[in-house]
C-alpha cells in the first residue's frame, strides 16, 4: 500500500484490501465522474433536494482526497450540465450558492495539496458571482502541479464539439481536407487535459448524459448503483481495481499495455 494511504484507510477494512490489490504502476491517468443521484438520495430519506446536493459536496471531497492519495494526475467532475438549467429555479440557485460556498471552504484543501482547479464548459453563461469566485480560485491554483482537477459547469458534450467547430471556422486557418482528429481536439475547451481512461457513473444509470462525448471514445466505463452522496474512497478504489482487470484494445485485436 502507498504510504499516502496509511492512516487514511482503516487496517483490515474493505478499503485497505482494495488498496492492496491496486497496481500503482498502472493507475488510470485520468478519471472522469458523472456525479448522479443527489435528488433521489434525498427523496429516499425524506429530505429536500438541497440537502441531497449538500451531502453530495462531501462526496466530492472524498473523491478528490482519494485521488490525491492515489497519485492520480487528472480528475474531472460533472457538476452542472447545460440541461440542468431546466430544473426548478430554486434548485438551480441552491446549486450555485453551494458551489460558491464549496470553493471558499475547500480552497485550503486545493492549496495544501497542490491541486490545480479548472472549469470546463461555457463559462460566459455562469452567474457573475459564481464566475468571479471560480476564476479567483483558478488563478490561485494556476501554477500547481499536483492533481489537475477539472469541474464541468454549464457543460454539454455536443456544445463543446460545436464550439470547437466554430473556433476552427472563425480562425479559417486550415483547409477541410487538412483537418485531422488531433487538430480538431486542440480546439476543445481543455485540449491539454488527456482523454479519460475511466468514466465513473453513480446511481446505476447506463448513459453518458452528454458528457465528454469526444474524449470518452475509448474510456472504460464503471457504474455503481449507489447515489453520489454515498460515494466513498471504497468506490474509487474498487473502480481502479476493476479498471486494471480490463483489456483495453482501442479497436485492435490485442490489448495495449
Descriptive overview:
The chain is 41% helix and 13% strand. It has 257 residues and is of the alpha/beta class. The protein has one domain (31-244): 3-Layer(aba) Sandwich (Undecaprenyl pyrophosphate synthetase). Strands 3-4-2-1-5-6 form a six-stranded parallel sheet, with helices on both faces. Helix 1 (14-21) runs parallel beside helix 8 (233-244) and helix 4 packs parallel to helix 5 (128-140).
Characteristics of this structure?
alpha/beta, six-stranded parallel beta sheet, 8 helices, about 15% strand
Overall strand count:
6
The main β sheet shows up as: 6 strands, parallel
Q: Report strand order across the widest sheet.
A: 3-4-2-1-5-6
- Kindly name the structural category: alpha/beta
Mass-distribution shape: globular
Give Rg in angstroms: 19 Å
CATH topology: Undecaprenyl pyrophosphate synthetase
Q: Give me the oligomer status.
A: single chain
Report the sheet-strand fraction: 5-15%
What is the CATH architecture annotation? 3-Layer(aba) Sandwich
Q: Kindly report the average pLDDT value.
A: 95
Q: What is the CATH level 1 assignment?
A: Alpha Beta
Continuous helix count: 8
Ends apart, CA distance between termini: 23 Å
> Can you identify the CATH superfamily?
Decaprenyl diphosphate synthase-like
Contiguous low-pLDDT stretches (5 residues minimum) are none
Q: Give the helix level as a range of percent.
A: 40-55%
Amino acid at each position: 500500500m502507498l504510504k499516502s494511504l496509511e492512516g487514511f484507510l482503516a487496517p483490515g477494512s474493505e478499503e485497505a484490501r482494495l488498496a492492496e490489490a491496486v497496481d500503482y504502476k498502472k493507475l488510470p491517468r485520468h478519471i472522469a465522474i458523472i456525479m448522479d443521484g443527489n435528488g433521489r438520495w434525498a427523496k429516499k430519506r425524506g429530505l429536500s433536494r438541497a440537502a441531497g446536493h449538500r451531502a453530495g459536496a462531501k462526496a466530492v471531497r472524498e473523491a478528490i482526497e482519494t485521488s490525491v492519495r492515489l497519485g492520480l494526475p487528472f480528475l474531472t467532475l460533472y457538476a452542472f450540465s447545460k440541461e440542468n438549467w431546466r430544473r426548478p429555479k430554486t434548485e438551480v440557485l441552491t446549486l450555485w450558492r453551494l458551489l460558491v460556498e464549496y470553493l471558499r471552504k475547500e480552497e485550503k484543501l486545493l492549496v495544501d495539496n497542490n491541486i490545480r482547479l479548472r472549469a470546463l464548459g461555457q463559462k460566459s453563461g455562469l452567474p457573475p458571482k459564481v464566475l468571479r469566485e471560480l476564476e479567483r480560485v483558478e488563478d490561485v491554483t494556476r501554477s500547481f502541479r499536483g492533481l489537475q482537477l477539472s469541474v464541468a459547469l454549464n457543460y454539454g458534450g455536443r456544445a463543446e464539439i460545436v464550439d470547437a467547430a466554430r473556433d476552427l471556422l472563425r480562425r479559417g486557418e486550415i483547409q477541410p481536407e487538412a483537418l485531422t482528429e488531433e487538430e480538431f481536439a486542440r480546439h476543445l475547451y481543455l485540449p491539454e487535459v488527456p482523454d479519460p481512461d475511466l468514466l465513473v457513473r453513480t446511481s446505476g444509470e447506463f448513459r453518458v448524459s452528454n458528457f465528454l462525448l469526444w474524449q470518452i471514445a475509448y474510456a472504460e466505463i464503471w457504474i455503481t448503483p449507489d447515489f453520489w452522496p454515498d460515494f466513498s474512497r471504497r468506490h474509487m478504489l474498487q473502480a481502479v481495481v476493476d479498471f486494471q482487470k480490463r483489456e483495453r484494445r482501442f479497436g485492435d485485436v490485442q490489448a495495449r499495455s
